[in-house]
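Let us walk through a complete example step by step. Step one is to write down the protein sequence. Step two is to encode the small molecule, coenzyme A, as a SMILES string so that its atoms and bonds are unambiguous. Step three, shown after the inputs, is the structure prediction itself.
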Amino acid sequence: MRTVTAEDLAALRCLWPAHDVWDGHAARAATGEVSFLAAWLGGEPVGVALVQWKGCAGTAARSALPDAVEINHLHVRDSHRGQGIGTGLIGHAERLASSRGVARVVLAVEDDNDAARGLYLRLGYRPTGLFDECVYSYRDDHGVERWASERSESLIKDLGSVSSPDSGGRAGVGNGYPGTTMTGRRNQEP
Ligand SMILES: CC(C)(COP(=O)(O)OP(=O)(O)OC[C@H]1O[C@@H](n2cnc3c(N)ncnc32)[C@H](O)[C@@H]1OP(=O)(O)O)[C@@H](O)C(=O)NCCC(=O)NCCS
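Step three: the predicted structure of the complex.
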């Protein structure tokens, strides 16, 4: 698990083609808006996640939980699911957040994603009753852009129990900022 480097980005483009998704994540990471994390197994990229430092993507969650950061775009390759990679990415993101002085982290989960919800509850996230509608675009198997919407509930975890940050960072970064907009797909794409 590590923050994506320029070298990683080249490998991602080559080994896990996802249209322009990686470049979009990398561009946001370059501004400091997000951290772009990837999990690797034997040189292969097997999972990704973003830590969104400018607060929650959804407006209800952002206004009710202004001090929280959100982990989103969490995605593990089909062939590698159920092996602890998603758990590892979430743990890495939590330690990174903790190292930046962030006390609370949010994971938003779609209404129909019971499996992911079960995982998040098991990892200590709890329901907030805060729901946001997300309109997103994605590319179908033929590369055609399509639009859809979904409702997600924000689940929250206090990071008091997260141990030994594994990465240095700037103290104080991660408080919510107004004006964050929902962009692209929340979690449906890598
Ligand atoms: C949700 C997801 C990130 C979990 O990653 P993972 O590496 O499979 O998760 P882990 O191996 O750490 O944990 C496995 C748990 O995840 C849950 N899970 C969710 N979707 C799963 C899937 N398709 N296959 C296997 N486990 C899945 C299971 O409940 C499992 O719990 P268990 O260990 O009690 O059986 C991954 O399944 C995924 O990328 N799904 C598609 C995209 C998505 O739904 N992202 C999250 C949006 S909120």
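Step four is interpretation. The mean pLDDT is 84.
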